[in-house]
Amino acid sequence: MSDVVYRELTAASLASRIASGNMPAVDSVRGSFAQAKEIGASREKLNLILWSDEDLALRDAEKLTESMAAAGAGGRLAGVPVAIKDNIATLGLPTTCASRILAGYVSPFEATAVTRLRHEGAIVVAKTNMDEFAMGSSTENSAHGPARNPHDIRRVTGGSSGGSAAAVASGIVPIALGSETGGSVRQPAAFCGVVGVKPSYGRVSRYGLVAFASSLDQIGPLARNVDDAALAMEIIAGVDPKDSTSSDAAVEPYREQFISPATAHPLQGVTIGVPVEYFPETLDSGIRKLCERSFDLFRSLGATVLDVSLPHTSLAVPVYYIIAPAEASSNLARFDGVRYGARIAGSDGLRGMYGATRSDGFGAEVTRRILLGTYVLSAGYYDAYYKKAQAVRALITNDFSTVFNNGVNVLFTPTTPTTAFPIGAVTDPYEMYLSDIFTVPANLAGVPAMSIPIGREASLPVGGQIIAPRFCESMMFRVAYALEGALGGDAHQ
Amino acid sequence: MSVTHDDVKHIADLARMSVSPERLDPLVNELNGILAHMEELEKVDTREIERVAEAAGADGIDSTPMRSDSSGPLLLLAPRESFAPAMRDGFFLVPRLATHEDAGDRSP
């Protein structure tokens, strides 16, 4: 790579160079590992990566080169290095959810989303750090220690897909996979200044995603720009016979050339709703100003911007922290030291082994959520907590349906109430939960949402969130492309 | 509603977790702290939604059709022995049940 700098290439341009023979796939892999070394992605500094193997990745690149020569063509991600969150199964590679209970576990199968990326020529170069079992908003709850934000190493990356977001932000990979349950792609995307997508519930196969809360979980891509995120979504979206919750609704095109009118006013006829509940008086004034700049740009692009109300927004966090731990307490019952993962003998036969394995294997936040979830599902409390939360969840879903059924095409909000906070600064569990306040509602309602960079506040990235009706990812991307284009360099200043 | 020491011991038992004595007090405080925020939900009138939820389905989008009720081969590309803590003759090995209560049901 004499004339091009790896870290500045998008996935789309890397793939087209490699597929056309203008760049060897091994150079792309070497570029990724060189960048990881240069920025200090390892445990000693940013602590973004739990596993990587340059020799294996180079062999994958050589195999790809041979198969492209034989086929006479390359895939849409030919030779593109990708990073995968460590709760997404990668065949023959460690998949540990950043937990002691899965230390050393090597997956004997692969997630469909990863298989689809590989089928297009992507090369897995890293498994990324995360909050243990995706439970957290800062990537501080990792058994391997906190990940650090490349924009300021004293601050968190956000979470739980913090390693994936920071690996993209620091130029190690143009695309990474994360997973969402309550904002775990969008929130770290906002904190790290990259694009992060939470697809509609059912849009992307979850086969091979270690289950946290099954009525909420989705795999989603992180990328440096909207186009790479759209490209990744086009590849990973769609029905999968291995995941009976994946939808067979047709996958629309997401990339700009297919969805955006090539005019000076690409949002002509689009109505963008601004939910007043996402702009409380206490909202950081810098974040508010950057959102207002985005509204002005939307208008200049031809869109109508109007205030709307989602009256049950404030209930989303309490609802989420009943439903998600309840489902987690059930899903995480499988980690019992019997079939896979760690086993601690304990002192008292089978029950002792269960208790010792689970108590030693799970960290503090995972333990807290399993106990909370067990409590809200236990006899005498089920109706008061879990059943009530499900009913309020329906009200939250109805809030979205009402505005979308009344002519609003997408909603625009801040992704997070603050920028990245210092490592160790948030110690109260509920205060940490509130950092998801703007992202959780979309998960509860099953609608797609994404975060894109809209500027900087005190030199830290700020994300703007676009929320669309279920399976209307095309409209969401159309608005994202337009805003990204209008912001230009201001998105990162 | 407020969580007690006994509640935490009980739910830890249900969840097959052992909680050390020094973690008991902090956990009681943390769980009560979190659950206090959930009380807001009690004030919400959900009678209408409960009735609707019983009558209809979810959001009306029916795009996850039933798959055929058939089984295929388990798609593992590595033998169970490569990841199981203990196996013999194709079976997972577990420690013996220490007491009669371990057999599960404690109800009379």
* Span between termini of chain A: 29 Å
Ranges of chain A where pLDDT stays below 50 over 5 or more residues in a row are none
What class, by secondary structure content of chain B? mainly alpha
The geometry of chain B reads as: flat
Characterize the main sheet of chain A.
11 strands, mixed
DSSP E strands of chain B, number: 2
Mean pLDDT of chain A: 96
Characterize the overall form of chain A: globular
Helix content, binned percent of chain B: 25-40%
Question: Number of helical segments of chain A?
Answer: 16
Strand order of the largest sheet of chain A: 1-3-2-4-6-5-10-11-9-7-8
- Helix count of chain B, per DSSP? 3
Biggest interface between chains: A-B, 75 and 56 residues
In terms of DSSP E residues, the strand content of chain B is under 5%
- The average pLDDT value of chain B, as a whole number, equals 81
Describe this structure in words.
- In chain A, strand 7, helix 9 (285-300) and strand 8 form a beta-alpha-beta unit.
- Chain A contains 16 helices and 11 strands.
- With 493 residues, chain A is α/β, with parallel strands linked by helices.
- Chain A is 38% helix and 13% strand.
- Chain A has helices at residues 11-19, 25-39, 54-71, 112-119, 162-169, 186-192, 226-236, 256-259, 285-300, 316-331, 349-361, 364-377, 382-405, 429-433, 440-445, 473-487, and strands at residues 49-51, 81-85, 123-128, 175-180, 195-198, 218-223, 271-275, 304-308, 410-414, 449-457, 460-467.
- The relative contact order of chain A is 0.13.
- Chain B is mainly α and 108 residues long.
- In chain B, 34% of the residues lie in helices and 4% in strands.
- Chain B has a two-stranded antiparallel ribbon with strand order 1-2.
- Residues 55-60 of chain B have low confidence and may be disordered.
- Classes of the chains: A alpha/beta (493), B mainly alpha (108).
SSE map:
The complex is a heterodimer of chains A (493) and B (108).
Chain A: H1 11-19, H2 25-39, E1 49-51, H3 54-71, E2 81-85, H4 112-119, E3 123-128, H5 162-169, E4 175-180, H6 186-192, E5 195-198, E6 218-223, H7 226-236, H8 256-259, E7 271-275, H9 285-300, E8 304-308, H10 316-331, H11 349-361, H12 364-377, H13 382-405, E9 410-414, H14 429-433, H15 440-445, E10 449-457, E11 460-467, H16 473-487
Parallel strand pairs in A: 2-3, 2-4, 7-8, 7-9
Antiparallel strand pairs in A: 1-3, 4-6, 5-6, 5-10, 9-11, 10-11
Helix pairs in contact in A: 2-3, 5-6, 10-12, 10-13
Chain B: H1 5-14, H2 21-38, H3 47-55, E1 87-88, E2 91-92
